[in-house]
Amino acid sequence: MRRHILAFVSGALFTLGLAVGGMTEPRKVQAFLDFTGDWDPSLAFVMLGAVAVYALCHQLSTRRAAPWHSGEFSLPASRRIDARLVAGAALFGVGWGLAGLCPGPAWSALGTGNPTIVVFVAAMLGGMLLVRAAEASGSAPVRRAPITSAAARDG
């Protein structure tokens, strides 16, 4: 139960931060990405704040043998930069620039009922289902399962 409460509080705090920072407002995000027009640099401060919090939490967590509410860490199996990673990052960036939304803020803003956000989330979920279907059919490479222990990752 305590684990679920912590997850809820963490998610609510994340959502609040996205909303206060303006990340749930597609026009503000698009203005941040418009370097040649009416550029709005304010989201850079939001991102810098997020990176600072992440850096601190990462440093603190790597000193622990296991997470607070799980038996072991779940880390990526590979650090290799491959075509799949680059293509996914490019697709994410193009989608972020066109829609002014990325997955976290889109979920956070879904409750507003904004039709653009509803369509974005539906398309995002559809894309996830397509990738799973492609992986299941063998026409796309299947992601490897994450390494779940620090010993296996480092060894």
Strand and helix map with partners:
Blueprint: H1 2-21, H2 26-33, H3 42-61, H4 83-99, H5 103-109, H6 115-137, H7 150-154
Helix pairs in contact: 1-5, 2-4, 5-6
Helix content: 55-70%
Radius of gyration, Cα only, in angstroms? 18 Å
Work out the count of structural domains.
Answer: 1
Summarize the main sheet: none
Q: So how many helices?
A: 7
Runs in which pLDDT lies below 50 for 5 or more consecutive residues are 150-155
Indicate the proportion of strand residues.
under 5%
Distance between the termini: 34 Å
| SSE series | HHHHHHH
Q: Give the structural class.
A: mainly alpha
Mean pLDDT: 83
Shape: globular
How many β strands by DSSP?
A: 0
Explain briefly what this protein structure is.
The chain has 155 residues and is mainly alpha-helical.
Task: Characterize the structure shown.
This protein is mainly alpha-helical. It is built from seven helices and no strands. Helix 1 packs across helix 5 (103-109) and helix 2 (26-33) crosses helix 4 (83-99). The longest helix is centred in the C-terminal third of the chain and has 23 residues, at 115-137.
Q: Descriptors for this entry?
A:
155 residues
